[in-house]
Amino acid sequence: MRNVATPQRTPVNKGISPALEGEFSPVSVGGITLWPPVILAPMAGVTDVPFRSLCKGFAQKGSGKQPQLPETICGLFVNQMITARAFVNRNRKTMKLAEFGEGEHPRSIQLYGTDPYFIGEAVRQLVSEQSVDHIDLNFGCPVPKVTKHGGGGALPFKRLLFQRIISSAISGADGLVPVTVKFRMGIDDSHLTFLDAGKIAEDEGAAGVTLHARTVEQLYSGQARWDAISRLKDHVQSIPVFGNGDVWEPFDAIRMLRETNADGVVIGRGCLGRPWLFQQLTEVFNGLEPSEMPSLGKVAEVMRQHAELVVNWHRTEDALRTFRKHASWYLTGFPVGGEARRAIHQVSTLRELEQILSLFDPDAALPLTAYRLPRSHKGGPKKAILPSGWLDNPFSDSELSPEAEQLVSGG
Is the pLDDT of residue 147 over 60? Predict the structure, then answer.
Protein backbone atom coordinates (compact mmCIF):
# COMPACT_ATOMS: atom_id res chain seq x y z
CA MET A 1 0.00 0.00 0.00
CA ARG A 2 1.32 3.44 -0.89
CA ASN A 3 2.14 6.06 1.67
CA VAL A 4 -0.53 8.78 1.56
CA ALA A 5 1.94 11.63 2.07
CA THR A 6 1.80 14.26 -0.68
CA PRO A 7 5.11 16.13 -0.69
CA GLN A 8 5.56 19.18 -2.85
CA ARG A 9 6.91 18.63 -6.34
CA THR A 10 8.52 20.96 -8.82
CA PRO A 11 6.73 21.25 -12.18
CA VAL A 12 9.22 18.94 -13.89
CA ASN A 13 8.05 16.06 -11.67
CA LYS A 14 4.33 16.79 -11.54
CA GLY A 15 2.34 13.65 -12.16
CA ILE A 16 5.28 11.24 -11.81
CA SER A 17 4.33 8.17 -9.78
CA PRO A 18 6.56 6.00 -7.59
CA ALA A 19 7.78 2.74 -9.06
CA LEU A 20 5.06 0.27 -9.90
CA GLU A 21 5.37 -3.25 -8.57
CA GLY A 22 7.87 -5.13 -10.73
CA GLU A 23 8.64 -2.09 -12.89
CA PHE A 24 12.34 -2.04 -12.01
CA SER A 25 14.67 -4.85 -11.02
CA PRO A 26 17.66 -5.29 -8.72
CA VAL A 27 20.95 -4.73 -10.54
CA SER A 28 23.98 -6.99 -10.18
CA VAL A 29 27.46 -5.52 -10.46
CA GLY A 30 29.58 -8.62 -10.34
CA GLY A 31 28.61 -10.32 -7.11
CA ILE A 32 27.02 -7.18 -5.66
CA THR A 33 23.26 -6.93 -6.13
CA LEU A 34 21.67 -3.53 -5.58
CA TRP A 35 18.14 -2.67 -4.58
CA PRO A 36 17.29 0.05 -5.08
CA PRO A 37 19.59 0.38 -8.13
CA VAL A 38 21.24 3.53 -6.80
CA ILE A 39 24.92 4.47 -6.49
CA LEU A 40 26.50 7.39 -4.64
CA ALA A 41 28.88 8.94 -7.15
CA PRO A 42 32.49 9.09 -5.97
CA MET A 43 33.36 12.77 -5.49
CA ALA A 44 36.86 13.86 -4.54
CA GLY A 45 36.91 15.64 -1.21
CA VAL A 46 33.26 14.77 -0.58
CA THR A 47 32.47 11.05 -0.35
CA ASP A 48 34.68 10.33 2.63
CA VAL A 49 33.82 7.90 5.43
CA PRO A 50 31.55 10.31 7.38
CA PHE A 51 29.50 11.34 4.34
CA ARG A 52 29.21 7.79 2.98
CA SER A 53 28.01 6.48 6.34
CA LEU A 54 25.44 9.25 6.57
CA CYS A 55 24.06 8.58 3.08
CA LYS A 56 23.96 4.84 3.69
CA GLY A 57 22.15 5.36 6.98
CA PHE A 58 19.41 7.32 5.24
CA ALA A 59 19.09 4.67 2.52
CA GLN A 60 18.65 1.99 5.15
CA LYS A 61 16.06 4.12 6.95
CA GLY A 62 14.05 4.25 3.73
CA SER A 63 14.31 0.51 3.21
CA GLY A 64 12.88 -0.03 6.68
CA LYS A 65 9.47 0.90 5.31
CA GLN A 66 9.51 -2.05 2.93
CA PRO A 67 11.03 -5.54 3.27
CA GLN A 68 14.51 -5.61 1.76
CA LEU A 69 14.88 -8.11 -1.05
CA PRO A 70 17.04 -11.11 -0.06
CA GLU A 71 20.74 -11.01 -0.93
CA THR A 72 20.62 -7.35 -1.96
CA ILE A 73 22.30 -4.26 -0.54
CA CYS A 74 20.59 -0.90 -0.24
CA GLY A 75 22.62 1.03 -2.80
CA LEU A 76 26.37 1.32 -3.39
CA PHE A 77 28.36 4.10 -1.70
CA VAL A 78 31.65 4.71 -3.46
CA ASN A 79 34.79 6.11 -1.86
CA GLN A 80 36.29 9.25 -3.39
CA MET A 81 38.60 9.10 -6.38
CA ILE A 82 42.29 8.31 -6.00
CA THR A 83 44.97 8.23 -8.69
CA ALA A 84 46.63 4.94 -9.55
CA ARG A 85 50.19 6.25 -9.74
CA ALA A 86 49.93 8.01 -6.37
CA PHE A 87 48.50 4.88 -4.73
CA VAL A 88 51.22 2.60 -6.12
CA ASN A 89 53.84 5.10 -4.98
CA ARG A 90 52.28 5.14 -1.49
CA ASN A 91 51.52 8.86 -1.47
CA ARG A 92 50.48 9.58 2.11
CA LYS A 93 47.49 11.76 1.26
CA THR A 94 46.26 9.20 -1.27
CA MET A 95 46.57 6.35 1.22
CA LYS A 96 44.44 8.35 3.68
CA LEU A 97 41.81 9.00 1.02
CA ALA A 98 41.64 5.26 0.29
CA GLU A 99 40.63 4.34 3.85
CA PHE A 100 37.31 2.74 4.73
CA GLY A 101 35.25 2.81 7.89
CA GLU A 102 35.27 -0.04 10.36
CA GLY A 103 32.84 -2.66 9.16
CA GLU A 104 32.12 -0.81 5.91
CA HIS A 105 30.79 -3.21 3.30
CA PRO A 106 30.93 -3.44 0.42
CA ARG A 107 34.17 -1.53 0.01
CA SER A 108 33.92 0.44 -3.21
CA ILE A 109 36.45 2.96 -4.55
CA GLN A 110 37.04 4.96 -7.72
CA LEU A 111 40.42 4.84 -9.44
CA TYR A 112 41.81 7.24 -12.01
CA GLY A 113 44.86 6.77 -14.17
CA THR A 114 46.29 7.15 -17.67
CA ASP A 115 49.04 4.52 -17.60
CA PRO A 116 47.97 0.88 -18.04
CA TYR A 117 50.81 -0.42 -15.84
CA PHE A 118 49.93 1.77 -12.85
CA ILE A 119 46.21 1.08 -13.27
CA GLY A 120 46.76 -2.68 -13.23
CA GLU A 121 49.16 -2.54 -10.30
CA ALA A 122 46.86 -0.26 -8.29
CA VAL A 123 43.93 -2.61 -8.85
CA ARG A 124 45.98 -5.60 -7.69
CA GLN A 125 47.05 -3.79 -4.54
CA LEU A 126 43.56 -2.49 -3.77
CA VAL A 127 42.15 -5.99 -4.03
CA SER A 128 44.90 -7.72 -2.05
CA GLU A 129 45.75 -5.08 0.57
CA GLN A 130 42.61 -2.96 1.01
CA SER A 131 40.12 -5.79 0.50
CA VAL A 132 38.00 -3.69 -1.84
CA ASP A 133 34.87 -5.29 -3.25
CA HIS A 134 34.36 -3.01 -6.27
CA ILE A 135 36.48 -0.63 -8.34
CA ASP A 136 35.17 2.10 -10.62
CA LEU A 137 37.40 3.69 -13.27
CA ASN A 138 36.97 7.42 -13.87
CA PHE A 139 37.16 8.87 -17.37
CA GLY A 140 34.83 11.79 -16.77
CA CYS A 141 36.97 14.60 -15.36
CA PRO A 142 36.56 17.78 -17.48
CA VAL A 143 39.12 19.92 -15.61
CA PRO A 144 41.40 21.75 -18.10
CA LYS A 145 44.65 21.03 -16.22
CA VAL A 146 43.93 17.32 -16.77
CA THR A 147 42.42 17.33 -20.27
CA LYS A 148 45.26 19.48 -21.64
CA HIS A 149 47.52 16.47 -21.01
CA GLY A 150 45.01 14.05 -22.56
CA GLY A 151 43.61 12.74 -19.30
CA GLY A 152 40.15 12.64 -17.78
CA GLY A 153 37.25 13.09 -20.16
CA ALA A 154 39.63 13.55 -23.10
CA LEU A 155 41.18 10.09 -22.83
CA PRO A 156 38.36 7.90 -24.28
CA PHE A 157 38.93 9.65 -27.63
CA LYS A 158 42.13 7.59 -27.91
CA ARG A 159 40.39 4.25 -28.27
CA LEU A 160 43.47 2.02 -28.11
CA LEU A 161 44.86 3.63 -24.95
CA PHE A 162 41.40 3.52 -23.36
CA GLN A 163 41.14 -0.17 -24.24
CA ARG A 164 44.59 -0.98 -22.81
CA ILE A 165 43.73 0.77 -19.52
CA ILE A 166 40.44 -1.10 -19.15
CA SER A 167 42.14 -4.40 -20.03
CA SER A 168 44.88 -3.81 -17.48
CA ALA A 169 42.35 -3.06 -14.74
CA ILE A 170 40.31 -6.17 -15.50
CA SER A 171 43.47 -8.26 -15.52
CA GLY A 172 44.57 -6.76 -12.20
CA ALA A 173 41.21 -7.61 -10.64
CA ASP A 174 41.69 -11.23 -11.77
CA GLY A 175 37.98 -11.93 -11.49
CA LEU A 176 38.01 -11.27 -7.74
CA VAL A 177 36.08 -7.99 -7.82
CA PRO A 178 33.91 -6.24 -10.42
CA VAL A 179 35.35 -3.28 -12.31
CA THR A 180 33.01 -0.63 -13.70
CA VAL A 181 33.77 2.35 -15.95
CA LYS A 182 32.44 5.92 -15.87
CA PHE A 183 32.74 8.38 -18.76
CA ARG A 184 31.10 11.37 -20.40
CA MET A 185 29.46 11.65 -23.81
CA GLY A 186 32.69 12.85 -25.37
CA ILE A 187 34.85 15.91 -25.76
CA ASP A 188 32.20 17.98 -27.54
CA ASP A 189 29.28 17.40 -29.88
CA SER A 190 31.66 16.88 -32.81
CA HIS A 191 33.72 14.29 -30.94
CA LEU A 192 31.34 11.94 -29.14
CA THR A 193 32.93 8.80 -27.75
CA PHE A 194 30.40 7.27 -25.35
CA LEU A 195 29.15 4.50 -27.63
CA ASP A 196 32.66 3.32 -28.46
CA ALA A 197 33.70 3.64 -24.80
CA GLY A 198 30.75 1.58 -23.65
CA LYS A 199 31.41 -1.16 -26.20
CA ILE A 200 35.12 -1.31 -25.38
CA ALA A 201 34.35 -1.59 -21.65
CA GLU A 202 31.80 -4.32 -22.33
CA ASP A 203 34.14 -6.29 -24.61
CA GLU A 204 37.03 -6.08 -22.13
CA GLY A 205 34.94 -7.53 -19.30
CA ALA A 206 33.74 -4.53 -17.30
CA ALA A 207 30.86 -5.28 -14.93
CA GLY A 208 28.97 -2.12 -15.80
CA VAL A 209 29.25 1.40 -17.22
CA THR A 210 28.04 4.83 -16.10
CA LEU A 211 27.38 7.72 -18.45
CA HIS A 212 27.43 11.29 -17.20
CA ALA A 213 25.25 12.65 -19.96
CA ARG A 214 27.28 15.76 -20.67
CA THR A 215 30.36 16.44 -22.78
CA VAL A 216 33.69 17.72 -21.48
CA GLU A 217 32.89 21.04 -23.14
CA GLN A 218 29.64 21.32 -21.18
CA LEU A 219 31.45 20.87 -17.86
CA TYR A 220 28.45 21.05 -15.50
CA SER A 221 26.28 23.48 -17.44
CA GLY A 222 22.97 23.08 -19.19
CA GLN A 223 20.87 19.96 -19.02
CA ALA A 224 22.15 16.40 -18.89
CA ARG A 225 21.09 14.74 -22.14
CA TRP A 226 19.35 11.62 -21.01
CA ASP A 227 18.72 10.54 -24.60
CA ALA A 228 22.42 9.61 -24.73
CA ILE A 229 21.89 7.21 -21.82
CA SER A 230 19.11 5.58 -23.82
CA ARG A 231 21.38 5.24 -26.86
CA LEU A 232 24.12 3.70 -24.74
CA LYS A 233 21.65 1.22 -23.23
CA ASP A 234 20.65 0.13 -26.75
CA HIS A 235 24.31 -0.20 -27.71
CA VAL A 236 25.60 -2.04 -24.62
CA GLN A 237 23.29 -4.88 -23.71
CA SER A 238 25.22 -7.52 -21.73
CA ILE A 239 26.19 -5.36 -18.72
CA PRO A 240 24.30 -2.79 -16.62
CA VAL A 241 24.15 0.82 -17.77
CA PHE A 242 23.83 3.52 -15.10
CA GLY A 243 22.73 7.07 -15.82
CA ASN A 244 24.23 10.14 -14.18
CA GLY A 245 23.24 13.79 -14.41
CA ASP A 246 20.50 16.08 -13.06
CA VAL A 247 18.97 13.83 -10.43
CA TRP A 248 17.99 16.53 -7.94
CA GLU A 249 14.79 14.97 -6.57
CA PRO A 250 13.77 11.35 -6.00
CA PHE A 251 11.33 11.35 -8.91
CA ASP A 252 14.11 12.44 -11.28
CA ALA A 253 15.58 8.94 -10.87
CA ILE A 254 12.25 7.33 -11.71
CA ARG A 255 11.90 9.57 -14.78
CA MET A 256 15.44 8.79 -15.91
CA LEU A 257 14.96 5.02 -15.82
CA ARG A 258 11.55 5.25 -17.49
CA GLU A 259 12.85 7.50 -20.26
CA THR A 260 16.16 5.74 -20.90
CA ASN A 261 15.61 2.10 -19.90
CA ALA A 262 18.86 2.37 -17.90
CA ASP A 263 19.45 -0.22 -15.21
CA GLY A 264 20.26 2.19 -12.40
CA VAL A 265 21.13 5.74 -11.44
CA VAL A 266 24.27 7.40 -10.05
CA ILE A 267 23.73 10.35 -7.71
CA GLY A 268 26.30 13.16 -7.70
CA ARG A 269 25.63 16.82 -6.91
CA GLY A 270 21.98 16.13 -6.10
CA CYS A 271 22.86 14.68 -2.69
CA LEU A 272 25.27 17.41 -1.61
CA GLY A 273 23.79 18.88 1.54
CA ARG A 274 20.92 16.42 1.14
CA PRO A 275 21.97 12.92 2.23
CA TRP A 276 18.29 12.18 2.96
CA LEU A 277 17.83 11.97 -0.83
CA PHE A 278 18.88 8.32 -0.48
CA GLN A 279 15.98 7.66 1.89
CA GLN A 280 13.60 9.28 -0.57
CA LEU A 281 15.07 7.26 -3.46
CA THR A 282 14.66 4.02 -1.54
CA GLU A 283 11.06 4.93 -0.84
CA VAL A 284 10.06 5.78 -4.42
CA PHE A 285 11.76 2.66 -5.81
CA ASN A 286 9.76 0.63 -3.30
CA GLY A 287 6.51 2.16 -4.55
CA LEU A 288 6.07 4.74 -1.77
CA GLU A 289 5.70 8.47 -1.86
CA PRO A 290 8.96 10.03 -0.64
CA SER A 291 9.37 11.55 2.78
CA GLU A 292 8.87 15.28 3.01
CA MET A 293 11.82 17.58 2.55
CA PRO A 294 13.12 18.30 6.08
CA SER A 295 12.56 21.61 7.81
CA LEU A 296 15.55 23.75 8.74
CA GLY A 297 15.41 22.29 12.26
CA LYS A 298 15.72 18.75 10.90
CA VAL A 299 18.51 19.86 8.58
CA ALA A 300 20.35 21.32 11.57
CA GLU A 301 20.11 17.95 13.32
CA VAL A 302 21.73 16.23 10.33
CA MET A 303 24.42 18.90 10.22
CA ARG A 304 25.26 18.23 13.86
CA GLN A 305 25.43 14.50 13.18
CA HIS A 306 27.62 14.99 10.12
CA ALA A 307 30.00 17.31 11.96
CA GLU A 308 30.34 14.86 14.85
CA LEU A 309 31.10 12.04 12.39
CA VAL A 310 33.86 14.17 10.85
CA VAL A 311 35.42 14.95 14.22
CA ASN A 312 35.20 11.34 15.40
CA TRP A 313 36.70 9.96 12.19
CA HIS A 314 39.64 12.38 12.16
CA ARG A 315 39.89 12.56 15.96
CA THR A 316 40.25 16.33 15.89
CA GLU A 317 38.00 19.35 15.51
CA ASP A 318 40.54 20.75 13.06
CA ALA A 319 38.90 18.43 10.52
CA LEU A 320 35.78 20.61 10.58
CA ARG A 321 37.41 22.62 7.82
CA THR A 322 36.42 19.73 5.54
CA PHE A 323 32.84 20.07 6.77
CA ARG A 324 32.45 23.75 5.89
CA LYS A 325 31.56 23.15 2.25
CA HIS A 326 28.96 20.58 3.34
CA ALA A 327 27.51 23.08 5.81
CA SER A 328 27.11 25.60 3.01
CA TRP A 329 25.36 23.02 0.82
CA TYR A 330 22.98 22.05 3.63
CA LEU A 331 21.81 25.66 3.87
CA THR A 332 21.41 26.26 0.12
CA GLY A 333 17.99 27.76 -0.48
CA PHE A 334 17.10 28.31 3.17
CA PRO A 335 16.50 31.90 4.43
CA VAL A 336 19.32 32.03 6.99
CA GLY A 337 20.98 35.32 6.06
CA GLY A 338 24.43 36.30 4.89
CA GLU A 339 25.93 36.63 8.37
CA ALA A 340 25.12 33.02 9.24
CA ARG A 341 26.53 31.81 5.93
CA ARG A 342 29.79 33.68 6.53
CA ALA A 343 30.01 32.23 10.04
CA ILE A 344 29.47 28.70 8.70
CA HIS A 345 32.42 29.16 6.34
CA GLN A 346 34.66 29.81 9.36
CA VAL A 347 33.35 27.25 11.85
CA SER A 348 36.18 25.45 13.64
CA THR A 349 34.57 23.76 16.68
CA LEU A 350 31.39 21.82 17.37
CA ARG A 351 30.45 24.47 19.93
CA GLU A 352 30.67 27.22 17.31
CA LEU A 353 28.52 25.17 14.96
CA GLU A 354 25.91 24.66 17.68
CA GLN A 355 25.80 28.40 18.38
CA ILE A 356 25.14 29.16 14.72
CA LEU A 357 22.49 26.47 14.32
CA SER A 358 20.66 27.65 17.46
CA LEU A 359 19.87 30.94 15.71
CA PHE A 360 17.90 29.31 12.90
CA ASP A 361 14.12 29.08 12.69
CA PRO A 362 13.57 25.31 13.10
CA ASP A 363 10.22 25.46 11.27
CA ALA A 364 11.57 27.18 8.15
CA ALA A 365 10.84 25.14 5.02
CA LEU A 366 12.91 24.84 1.89
CA PRO A 367 11.16 26.88 -0.83
CA LEU A 368 9.89 24.82 -3.73
CA THR A 369 12.02 26.93 -6.07
CA ALA A 370 15.16 25.76 -4.25
CA TYR A 371 14.62 22.02 -4.73
CA ARG A 372 16.72 21.95 -7.90
CA LEU A 373 19.43 24.46 -7.03
CA PRO A 374 22.83 23.02 -8.05
CA ARG A 375 25.53 22.67 -5.43
CA SER A 376 29.28 22.53 -6.03
CA HIS A 377 30.34 22.56 -9.72
CA LYS A 378 28.39 25.00 -11.90
CA GLY A 379 30.86 26.03 -14.62
CA GLY A 380 30.63 25.80 -18.38
CA PRO A 381 30.28 25.55 -21.23
CA LYS A 382 33.94 26.02 -22.10
CA LYS A 383 35.94 24.75 -25.05
CA ALA A 384 37.95 21.70 -23.99
CA ILE A 385 41.69 22.23 -23.69
CA LEU A 386 43.54 19.35 -25.32
CA PRO A 387 47.13 18.40 -26.28
CA SER A 388 48.29 19.64 -29.66
CA GLY A 389 47.08 17.31 -32.39
CA TRP A 390 44.97 15.24 -29.97
CA LEU A 391 42.02 15.06 -32.34
CA ASP A 392 44.03 14.10 -35.42
CA ASN A 393 43.80 10.34 -34.97
CA PRO A 394 41.47 8.60 -32.48
CA PHE A 395 43.31 5.29 -33.02
CA SER A 396 46.86 6.41 -32.29
CA ASP A 397 48.24 4.47 -29.31
CA SER A 398 49.28 7.49 -27.26
CA GLU A 399 51.40 7.52 -24.12
CA LEU A 400 50.55 10.32 -21.69
CA SER A 401 52.77 12.25 -19.32
CA PRO A 402 52.40 11.87 -15.54
CA GLU A 403 50.91 15.39 -15.46
CA ALA A 404 47.68 13.85 -16.74
CA GLU A 405 47.28 12.11 -13.38
CA GLN A 406 47.03 15.11 -11.10
CA LEU A 407 44.73 14.64 -8.10
CA VAL A 408 41.63 16.64 -8.94
CA SER A 409 37.92 16.51 -8.37
CA GLY A 410 36.22 14.89 -11.31
CA GLY A 411 33.06 13.30 -12.45
Answer: yes
Whether residue 10 is predicted with pLDDT greater than 60 in this model: the reply is yes
Catalytic residue, candidates 55, 74, 141, 271: 141
- Per-domain boundaries in the chain: 22-292+385-405, 296-362
Is 410 within 8 Å of 80 (Cβ atoms)? no
Q: Looking at this protein, which amino acid is placed at residue 89?
A: N
Is 55 among the catalytic positions?
Answer: no
Q: What pLDDT sits at residue 69?
A: 66
Mean pLDDT, the chain, integer: 93
Helix H or strand E encompassing 303: helix 296-314
CATH class of 22-292+385-405: alpha beta
Instruction: Label the pairing between strands 38-40 and 264-267.
Output: parallel
Residue 123 contacts residue 111 (beta carbons within 8 Å): yes
**33 forms bridges with which residues in the sheet?**
28
**DSSP states along 127-160:** HHHS--SEEEEEE----HHHHTTT-GGGGGGSHH
